[in-house]
């Protein structure tokens, strides 16, 4: 299946027509909707499911369990951001990067149409990644970035690496340290790995004082212990959002 997201966050039509300014509005009186689209089906087979209003920037994964589709992601109950009265235009735009987001699960029953949703934690996290070779299959672990709370009035920074166990609800956390910001952290499976978490998690970190960048490598099973290796990079890599792991074998095979 393909799952399309229809969240109640969209441009205000009247203001767009009057001013030609695209101003996002969050409509709390409208539900979040997910459309489950059969990949090889027909339009009439599309199923819609409604949930609490909100917004999701990134999903962690989705899979099938019998008649159910299960989807985990980082849910924002109010995506309009946090602004101060003295914010200028640019600061107001950056306010959208002050977000409150936590791990949530949605369930959709394709037979009965039943909807269920539950909070998996309340820690402020985003940019979730499981073992991406298992997308579409049930995954137990995901790796997230901890964000400052909106009331701290920071822009988007990654303060810590967090590992979630989606089965028992536990998590591990490692704080990068003062002045250091990490990146979205992909999982690199060990060669011939058996267990889902047998491998490493990588984060490109940037020191805001020295402007030095490093690649920190974590044992995926023991995130809280800190990096098992720190690789100094020959050039600064500016703080960014996304990262992906690709094995050397895959690169050479497609060359």
How many β-strands, per DSSP?
Answer: 18
Largest sheet: 5 strands, antiparallel
What Rg do the Cα atoms give? 20 Å
- What is the CA–CA distance across the termini? 30 Å
Strand content: 35-45%
Percent helix, as a range, is under 10%
Helical element count? 3
N-to-C order of helices and strands: EEHEEEEEHEEEEEEEEEEEH
The average pLDDT is 90
**Which structural class best describes the helix and strand composition?**
mainly beta
The coarse overall form would be globular
The overall number of domains is 1
Oligomer designation: single chain
- Provide the low-confidence segments as ranges: none
Protein model, in words:
- The protein is mainly beta and 255 residues long.
- It has one domain.
- The strands form five sheets. Strands 14, 15, 16, 17 and 18 form a five-stranded antiparallel sheet that branches. Strands 6-7-8-9 form a four-stranded antiparallel sheet, with no helix packed on it.
- β8 and β9 form a beta hairpin.
- The two termini are 30 Å apart.
List the helices and strands and how they pair.
Blueprint: E1 2-6, E2 9-11, H1 13-19, E3 24-26, E4 32-37, E5 47-51, E6 55-65, E7 68-76, H2 89-94, E8 102-109, E9 115-119, E10 125-129, E11 141-146, E12 160-165, E13 171-175, E14 180-181, E15 187-189, E16 199-207, E17 213-219, E18 229-232, H3 248-253
């Amino acid at each position: 299946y393909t799952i399309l997201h229809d969240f109640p966050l969209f441009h205000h039509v009247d203001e767009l027509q009057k001013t030609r300014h695209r101003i996002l509005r969050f409509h709390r009186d409208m539900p979040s909707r997910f459309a489950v689209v059969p990949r090889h089906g027909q339009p009439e087979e599309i199923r819609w499911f409604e949930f609490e209003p909100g917004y999701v920037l990134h999903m962690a994964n989705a899979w099938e369990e019998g008649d159910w589709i299960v989807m985990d992601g980082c849910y924002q109950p109010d995506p309009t951001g946090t602004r101060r009265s003295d914010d200028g235009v640019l600061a107001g735009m950056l306010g959208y990067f002050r977000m409150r987001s936590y791990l949530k699960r949605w369930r959709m029953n394709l037979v009965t149409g039943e909807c269920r949703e539950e909070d998996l934690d309340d820690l402020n996290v985003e940019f979730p990644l499981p073992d991406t070779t298992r997308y579409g299959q049930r995954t137990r672990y995901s790796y997230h970035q901890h964000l400052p709370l909106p009331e701290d009035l920071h822009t988007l920074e990654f303060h810590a690496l967090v590992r979630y166990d989606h089965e028992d609800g536990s998590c591990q956390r490692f704080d990068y340290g003062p002045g250091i910001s990490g990146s979205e952290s992909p999982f690199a499976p060990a060669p011939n790995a058996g267990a889902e978490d047998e491998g490493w998690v990588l984060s490109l970190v940037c020191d805001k004082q020295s402007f030095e960048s490093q690649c920190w490598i974590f044992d995926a099973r023991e995130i809280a212990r800190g990096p098992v290796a720190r690789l100094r990079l020959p050039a600064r890599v500016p703080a960014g959002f996304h990262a992906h792991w690709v094995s050397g074998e895959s690169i050479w095979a497609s060359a």
